[in-house]
Structures are given as structure tokens and as C-alpha cells.
Amino acid sequence: MAKNKDVRPPIFAVSVVGLSGTEKEKGNCGVGKSCLCNRYVRPDADNYYSEHTSVLSTIDFGGRVVNNDHFLYWGDVSHRGDEGLDCKIQIIEQTEFIDDQTFLPHRSTNLQPYTKRAAATKLQSAEKLMYICTDQLGLEQDFDQKQMPDGKLNIDGFVLCVDVSKGCNRKYEDQMKFVNSLYSQIVKSKKPTVVAATKCDECVDQHLRDLHAFVTSKKNLMLIETSARFNINIDLCFNALIQQLDKTRGKPKSVSYLEAYKLQRQLITSVTDRFDKVMTHTVRDYHTTWKTVVNILKGQPDYDEFITLEGSRKARNMFTKHIAQLKQEHIKKRREEYLTALPKTLNNLFNNLEQVETLSWTEAKSLIHNRPDFQYWFVVLEHTPWDESDHIDNNDRRIPFDLLNTHEAEKIYLNHVQHLLSEKRRVEMKDRFKKTLERVHFISPGQSWEEVMCFVMEDEAYKYITDSDRRDVYCRHQQEIVEKAKEDFQEMLFEHAELFYDLDLNATPSCDKMSEIHSVLNEEPRYRALQKLAPDRESLLLKHIGFVYHPTKETCLSGQNCVDLKVEQILANRLVQLDHGRSSLYYNSANIDRINLCLLGKDGLSQELANEIRAQSTDDEYTLDGKIYEVELLSVDVNSTLLFSHTWVTTFKPHGCFCVFNSIESLNSIGDCIGRIRAEIAQSRRDRFAQPLPFILILANQRDNVCKNIPILRHQGQQLANKLQCTFVDIPSGAFPRKFTEFQIKQGLRAVLEGLKHNFDVLAPLPCIKDLTETDLRIVMCAMCWDPFSVDLILSPFLDSHCCSAGQPGQSNTLILDKIIGDSRRRIQVTIISYHSAIGVRKDELVHGYILVYSAKRKASMATLRAFLAEVHDVIPVQMVAITDSQADFFENDAIKELMTEGEHIATEIAAKFTALYSLSQYHRQTEVFTPFFNEVLEKKLSIESSFLFDSSSRECTTGASEDVFPTSPHSHSPAYNTYYPESDDDNEAPPPYSPIGDDVQLLPTPSERAKYRIDLEGNEYPVHSTPVGDHERNHKVPPPVRPKPVLPKPNVKKLDPNLLKTIEAGMRGNRRMPRGPVTHTEDVEASDNYADPADSLYRPRAFDIYLVPDDTHNRLIKVKNSFGALPGLHAGEEEENGFDRKSQAGRRPSKYKHRSKILFSKIKAYQRQFHSDSDGEESCPATQKKKKGRAHRGSEEDPLLSPADPWKLGIDNPAIMSDPEQDDKMKKKKKTPKTPKEPKKPKANKSPKPLYPPTRRTWESNYFGVPLQTLVTAERPIPLFIEKCVDYIERTGLTTEGLYRVCGNKTDQDNLQKQFDQDHSIDFMAMDVAVNAVAGALKAFFADLPDPLIPYSLHPELLEASKIVDYIERVQVLREIVKKFPSVNYQVFKYIITHLNRVSQHSKTTLMTADNLSICFWPTLMRPDFENKDTLSTTKLNQAVIEAFIVQSDYFFHGGEVADSPRSEGTPPQHCHSMVEALLPLQLPPPLQPQQIQHALPPDPLI
Known about the structure:
The protein has 1504 residues and is an alpha/beta fold. It is built from 54 helices and 31 strands.
């Protein structure tokens, strides 16, 4: 038991001995003792040294390695036996060192001869170091220093080395004599001995046999055949000796040298193959260096094993051969590339057969060399051939010209000539076949090739060309006729404009309506021409209807030919934008006699400039251009904290800022400061018309080194000035002693004054015009897209006038005319838009007159005019304009004559004005052509505005939402929706054809919001703010939610919405000065009912009908009695059956022009009569009767684009208009008595209100969408697959899409995308060919459907506090610490989506989606705040700023990058709030669609 307490591996000392001595005794080389020890102790090939000398200097002999001894300590080797027992073997080599001077053995303490000394079993040498190689001697400190343990060793066994090679000047017999003598001494020590036959790789067989005989003759002596060079049996030699020392170990098997060598070579071959594979896989570029490869392969088993066995030198040799092979392969590949590109090059150079048909290859090469574009295709090298030059390493893909001298190049040329010959013939035959198909007139669009093939099989061209070419020609022919048929079909749809006039915005057309459309169109040959392409025809029809639903310039079917786009381009190029309505911030713009200057510089430079200005001034008065200005100076250093406090601007009120610099460092500091000053001022100001602050960059003179840095500073300063849009003042030419000159100061002051004059509009004052925000007349000019005339033609009467200027900022399609109309100067606002954009204007905005333009060459143009004009109120004057080339067209072209005559007849019927403009004539392009029309409009202005007021109040009473939608009056300065639906400058896209908000829409202001309004003198409401409106209010885009309207159980329950009554109250209060009567309710009406009261329960002190309200479900008419007193301008005696006197001009509800023109009325009725006559036989079906009744009781023929038919679409019910001639006519002719309505059922109990963010917007069950984020991710896939697919698709296809993430995609496409993904997660979005906006919408919907927002609610307060930190660097640092607190799943997804948004923002030049715009679109989705909370409304801007910071600094937050420059420093000011009352609204385009989607486009803020 005691033995096992401390088990240590045994240690054996082995002495390696053999022939040693002088050269005379041992010959020129030793017997291999050192190599044997080296290979055993350090077997790695890199640590094996084949040369070990015994001739040493006295110094080396006395060093610590030799230590004046004739033996070397090689170190120890740990050995593990088969049984797992460990032992340590210490190696000693007994040798004899020769003095390099005397060539005699060195003298040492032991003077015995080698044979006796080598057989010694006890060795002693204090502090003796381990020997490694000969280079170690004298440089012991550069090698591993390991001492012989305890300075003494006891030898346990011997290895006797015998060289069996031929030897060097040494006889084998003499060696054996020495061995016999040495062995006899070793035997005396009674220590086990093993004989090692060394250098067996060069052995002499006789010597080996003699050695075997010697060993056999001795007792207990074992012979091992070894080779240190190839590492054969080295371990076996020492293992055999260890077995004799420790009998517990198994006796090793003796293996002959040849067998061991064979096994070793097999091992080396295997290791070499594996290393070669690894290197081939790793090194694929012949430019790779060996050092790089070593760093890559180090640590790999195959590499390490090869290095151990063969060494680094062989590894490098293999690497060199591999690199040479890669280079040859690269050259071969380049040659193939050149030979592959040569046919294409020849095709570009000689694509005409006539050029090369008779040329030889030598002549062709000469012709190629002389071509002007030779350098584009070929390169002439200085060193040839090309494959031995540096050209192989170039990225130049031009073909080396010396390659053309090869046989392969000549063969390619001959093949090219032959190809041109055959291609010429092939093209001729394809053209002939195309003409053959054109002669076959019965080929219809969509007809398959198989149906036509049999009719052309006998054609010669058909037989010559291949089947692929036949199909290709036929496919091109089909494309042409299909395209022509689709164009004709689209034109036909426009020609039937009246057929689509009553389609509702954002509603699905009813079955009756679709049947009516198909019934009418089926009579058209152009409709039947697409019979075989019925799906395409239906798609075109639905696309056209969709355009009618959503008529904007983005959805315009004419694309870039849209009138709206062309007008915007022309006006942007030809008009100078005037900044209307800008108020004077500090002084009146007319007289500026005081200038406050801020001087900004670094290291006292600003103070030097201040001193120079004061030196040129007299008592702080500066004379400039003959005028004296009082100059107040404020010198500020760029590092001063004063710059970033808001007080210095408000207290000092600078008119301009001189920024001086004299070095690159000071220039960079100036640039940063300007950006931060602009951002801080913009963020703090409240007045959107605040004056921009002019910045003047001034280069200071460097008196020490004038000529060295001035050009660089001048260039850098000019670049920064261009970037910041400010003025740069250079150093004047000539020598001068001071840093600043009088010339520079005066130039800077002039720039400040020019900036002030520009800001105050004093460059072009209009003294005869009233306040620029007011216009006397508002005229709308309409033209149809795709009409065959230039838009310049209809704009020229205005643009050629000297009194024309730009409209208000943000109204790119509006211009202002300053004309004398009547007896005074008038300002006329003319808005030039397309008919489809004018539809929304026609009903909902104040227009004093219409100029309706049509092409006399196009029936569709006239049809569109008719459909539009039919719905215009007859009190509004109309000017009709026909466009053609010349007056001769009227007499030479019957079609033009017919359309011009029709236009003139319509104008005559409705008492409108009619004129013609001729594209080839200049006479009618003068503004005077419209002067009579303007006079008429001015005369009727009061009646038009009175009618508009009356119509607006009626619509407010009937729709219950007009107060929030279109409360514009002739003098109103603040529409309500500007307050409730503010919008950023960039977010002025038309809303999509569906509601992205859903049911959570407030159509009426709450009582608390009404308190914000005040009634002006004319009874109109305008918003009043007790405190300035913050930025958050303008960016608050999501309206507060209200209770959803429950589904009524019966379609004929007649109830009125109390909200409607509130609207009536507001309308009466806002537009009538008479007190309204009380409203009482019967006792059975529940006070909690938020929707409809029975009509019979209304109190009726004076009962007369003022309007009809269609029922919510089927548009049945409900008469509502006036209970609020008489209307303005009406007396009790004037009331008639319809509730008021139609003859009273002040309160007259206007009719429409379709009731004043037989042509307009007949066109509309023609479609209805045709359809009803076709469908009379279907009246037996109750469902059909019900639908037809709903259509018949639609109310009036009001504007079709106001309300959807389906209640779930959130439309506003369209009120019926009393005494509509068409409706009266229908009612009189109707013979059938309507069925008595059934008793209404009791309404269901009100549903509980929906949450602010409902769990899902989907209508189907899903296991993927709307579930917690944790269930969608794994450790291997931390990002949900749907997000990855969406982001990948958007980044591949949508980074050039304007309005990405802002313009909503089609909701149906979004739902289909999610449904298909729900069913199959492997679907390919690219294969689906879905619109990128739909994918973007689906991605946002994914986050909106999550049970919890991506940014946890618990972190919202911390983010809010961080956003209030003034210092930008500190703010982003705090935000980075907060984002680390996100749950890991949320963090990964947030990092992914923010990084994606950063990439999107980098393409803002094309998408127009900056980080600011993206944050506006995304922050409500990512944070999901409670907008019912007032605190949320006050922090909207801060929340948006947080998301913007994440987007801009995504590299810093998530990828370890540096803080990027603040976006505010790049000239993009933050968006501002508006606290002042706005002017009369210009026409809004595109027209508003739904109340919840209306967002007023604000004028862009001036750049500060």
C-alpha cells in the first residue's frame, strides 16, 4: 500500500556511444550518434538537423552547453508503453570534441580515453544546458535553455551506434575494432545495451551482415536497423532498451529496415495526399502567399501531421508547385475568355456582311487596328506574348491584340463571316414570314400558333426558318396585335366615361353594375376583339375601374403621360417659386437699417474679424453702397456652449452669420457648427415661416504661408458652401498685410442683405396686390391624359403672360395670375390638373370656374369632359376649349368637325363659353383668350360662394363628417383636417384605395377638441391654441379611436346618428346667425346609444324636409325634418314642399349641368335605358328586385366618388338632393308601389369598444401571424422567416421605389401574401411578382399584429428621457445602453429591421424616404403607444426622433461602428409645427378619398 501512495514515472538515463575522435580515427563524418539522438528527442522534421560538428572553438567548448565535457545532454523524452505506463528517458551522447586550432581533443577534467570514458555510468556537470543544434553554441540565450537535472546522471543503459554505410575515409574493420573495445568496457558496467545500425538508408549489405554476426556472437545483445534521415526504427531502438531496463514492459517486435521503411513511406504518402487536398481547397488564387496559407492551415490535423513528418520546406515546395499550376489554369481560363469574347467583339465591329465578306483575316486585323474604337475592344501590350506579361493580372478585359495571331482567332473570324451570311438569309425569311402573317387578317388577339399554323405551312419562308423562329415571329406578331387591341379597348373604356361616372371610391362595384358595364361594352367590336383574352380584358376593365376608384397621378393609366406630372414638370422649369405668406421675423423688409451679425470662428479668429469690422466702422455704423447701417456684432468661438442654447437667437436676433476659417481643421469645425446651429434653431422655432439665417463662409488670409494652403482651403471652402447652400467669400487677388479685407466684409454684408431681401420678397414686390395669401378667384383647368397635344399648348396662355407667378409652396400644379379684371387688379389662382384629379375638387372644394379642355381628335377626350361636366354645379361658369392643329381641320376631317360641333352645342346648352386653341397658331395662345371668362366668373363670384356655403352646410348635416373633411369656406384660413390629420412634408401621397387604419377613425371632434376652435365673424371655425403647437402634433398621424359602428340587424331600421345631430348643430352654429331650436328625445331612446335614434323621436316645432338620408344598409331614403329654424336668407312664407324656396339665390341648392344639357343627360340615360331594358326579364328574382330598388333609390346623381356602397368601407353616406330633376322624373314614372317596410327589430346590444390596437387585422385564422415573437424564432434562425423574405424582396426590388413604406400597397395583395405564406413557408415572393409596396405593407402588418410591440412598453419611459438629452453624442450613447436591455428575441429582430431601414434610407435620392420619413412611418408600428393618452400626444415627436436615431446610427448601435454625422447637420431641418392661421387652401391634389385618410400637404419649410 505504501508503494502506491506516490507513484511517479520511472526515469532512465541512456547513453548513446559509438566511434568518436579525430578525423583520422573516425573519418570525415561521424557514425550518426547526434542524428540518432536528434531524431529521437525532437522527431519533427523542422527540428531535425542533419549536420552536427564535433570541431569546436575553445570558447564554445567552455560554454554552458558543452561545459568543458566530452558529452552532450540532449534532454528527456516522455515515453508511454503499451500498458499505459509512463517513463521519462534522459539522453546523453558520448563524443569527443576537437579543438579547431590544434585539431586535437579538447582537454577536460576527465582525461580517460573515449572507450573508458563512454562506458562510465555516473556523469556530473554543474549547470550544463540541453544541446539542440550547432547554431546554439555561443548563442545559448536565443534557444530554449534547459539544464541537466541536478547536474549529474546515472546511466541505466547504452545504445551502441555502428555505421553500416560506406563511410567517409573510414574502414569498416577499424570501426568494428573500436566497437569491440568499447563494448568490452560497456559490458563491465553490467548495463543493458542495444546496437543501432545507423545510416541503413545508405547501408552496405556486407557491413550489415557482419554487424548481425557480431551481435549474434554476444549474449543478450539486440540489433536495430535505423535511419535517422528518414526516421526509421528510431523509437524502436530506444523502446527495445527500455524493455530491457523495465522487464514489466512487453518486448517490442524487431522490424527490419526495409519493412519499416515501407510502412513509413505509406504513412508519408497518405499524409501528403491529405495535405495536398487541404491546400488545393484553401489556395485558389495564385497570388496567395505562403505566410497567408500557414496562418490559415495552422492547427488543422492534416497540415500539422505533414509538417511533423516532412517539414515546412517540403510543404512550401508543394505550395509553390500548386501556385504555378493555378497560374497556368488562370492563363488558360483567360485565353478561353478572350476567345469566347472575340466572336462578340467581331459582331460589334463587323456586324455588316458587306464589310467583311471579301476580307482575309490579315486584312481584317489591319482594319480592326485602324478603327477609332480599337482601344475599346483591344489592347496592345509592350511585352508579348500576353500570357507572360502582367496583363494576366489586370482587370482589363480587353483582348490582347497579339492573341489575334493565333490559329484559333483566325478560325473564329471565318466562322463569324459564315454566320453573317446565314443570319442575313434567316432575317430575310423571318421578315417575309412576318409579312405573310400580316396578310392573314383572320388572326385574332390571343389565337394560338397551332390554330394558325396550318394556314401558312405552304409559305416558302415558313419552310426555311426553324420552328423556334416561326414561333418567335408569330409571338411578336401576336404581341403587336394584342397591344393594339388593348390600347383600343382602353380607349373604348374612356369613350364610355359616362358608364363609370357613378362608381364609388373605395367600394366594390355591385353585380348589377358589372352586368350593366358588360352589357353595354359587349356591343363594341373592340370589346369582342379580346374575346380569347377574357382574363386580360377583365383585368384591364378592373384596372380601369380601380383607377376610377383611386384617381391619382400614381395610378393614372397613362403613366408618365399623366397631365399632372407634365404640368408639375413644366411649371417647375418655367416658374420662379415665390414664398407666399412669409412673415417678417425681425424687421419690415422694405427698410433695413440695422444688421445683427454673428461672427463664428476658431482660436480667436472671430474676434479678429470683429475688430476689423469695428475698425472700418464709425460708432458702430458701417457704410455700404451709399447707405449707412447700424451693425451689432456678436463674436462666438466654435467651441462655445452659447451656440447650442436657444437663447442667443431669440435675444440677439442675428440677420446673418460670418463664418471665418484659415485651416482645414477650423473649416471642419465651422461646417459641424453650421449644421448643429441649423438643427437647433429649426427644432426650437414654432413659426413655420420663420426667416432662414444666412451663413457666409469667409476665408482668412494666411500671412505666413500665403501660397501653400490657400488653393486647398479655397477649394474646400467652396465645396462646403455648395453643400450647405451658403455664400463663399474668397481672398481677393493681390498682397495685403491683414487677415481680412474691406472687400471681403462688404461682400459678406451684401450677401446677408440679399438673403434678407429674398426672404422678404422685396426683389419683386407686387404693390397693387393684396396679401399674397389671398386670391380673388380660384379657377381649375382640366385636361385629359394621353390627349394628342402638348401640355405647353394649354399652359402657354398663362406662362407667356408677364403677370404669371408660381402658386403657394407645395402646390406644384398651381400658378397665380395678376390681371386687371373689371376695374381693379385681381389675383387669379389657376390650377391645371387632369380630369381624374379634378373629380375630388369638383365636389368638395371652392372653385369659381372651370376651364375644360378636350382634344377634337379624340372621342375619349370629349366623353371624359361630358362625364365630368355632367356633375358640375350649374352655378359655376365653364369655359370649354377644343384643341386641334389648325382651323383647316374643321373642314377637312369629319371626325374633328363632329367633336368640335358637339362641344359647341354643349356650351350653347349650358350657356358656357367655347373657344378653340390651335397648336400651329400663336394667336390664341394669349392670356386674353380667357379674359371674358374671368369677367363672367368675377360677376358670379358671390352667388358661387353662397351656393358653396349652402351646399357645404347641407353636406355637413347629411354626412355628419364634413366638419372634419371639407369645412373650407371662401375666407376660411384653417381647415379642420389640417389639425386632426397633420402630415409631414414628404408624406403627401394619395391614400390607397382601402383604409389602412380600419375602424378606429374619429369622424367628429370630441368636445374637448371643439374647445380648441373659435368662431370667426363669418361663422367659420378656426383652431385656437393656448400654447404653440409642438412638433408632435403635426406628426401625429393616427387619429384617436372611437367605438365601431355595430351591424344593424335590419336593413330598414330608421335611426339617426347622434353624431350626425352634433354635426348639424356645428353646421348651424358655424354658418347661421339664427339660434337653433332645442332637440329633445323620447323616453325610450337610450342615452348610451352612440349611433342612431328613431326618426319619429325627433322634436318637430317646424316640420319641413331639408334632405334625405339613405339608410346605412341599402340606401333607402329617410326624410329628416328641420328642427333648427329657418335657413339663412329664407322666410317662413317661402318654404315649399322641398323645404325652401328654390328661387332664393342666397340659399339655392345648385343643380348640375347634366340637367341643363340634352346632350349630357341623354348620354347618361342612354346607358341606363340600355341596361334596364336588357335586365327587365330578371325582375322576378327577389334578390334582383332588392338590388335594383337600392340602385333606384340611390338618392341624387351626386358625385360618385364620395361614399362606398358597403358600410364596412367606412364611407360617408351620400345625401340625396331634393328636387333633382332626374330623380323627380324617376319617381313620377315609377308605377310599382314600394313594399311596406317591415317592423324594425330591436337592435342588438352595443359591442364593447375595440382596443386601440386590435390583436390582428386579419380575417382568417393563422398559426404564424399574430402570435408571440418567441414562437417564430430559434437559436439557429433568430429572425422570423417572413421578415427575412420581405426584407430580401424589398432590398432586391424596391430600393428605387418612390415612397417605399409610405405609399401603401394593395390590401388584397397583402392579405394574399400572408395567406399563401401561412400555407407554405417556402413560397418565392419573386415568382409571385407581387408589388413591392404590398410586401412592405405586409411587413408592417406583421409587426402590428404582434401581441406585444417590438419595443417593450417597459422601456418607453427610458427612451423618452434619453430623447430629451440635448447633447447628441450623449443621447445616442444612452440609447445604446437602453437597447441592450431589450429581450434577446426582440433585440435580434429590432437590429435586423433597423439595419434594413438604414439601407433603405441610403437610397433616399430615389425613394425619397429619408431616415426621418421612415421613422414617421415606423415608430407607431414598433412602439404601439396609446394615443388615447394625452401624454402620448405630447411625446409623439420625441418617439419618432428615437426611431430616427436608431435608423441613422444603426451601425453604431448594432455593428460596433462609430457615431455617424447627425442627419440635421446635412441641411435637412426638422419638421416644424404650425401655430398660425392658414390662408385660403389651394386645391388639394390628388383629391381626398376618405375622411380618415385626409392629410393636408403642408408647404415645405424654408431651409435655414
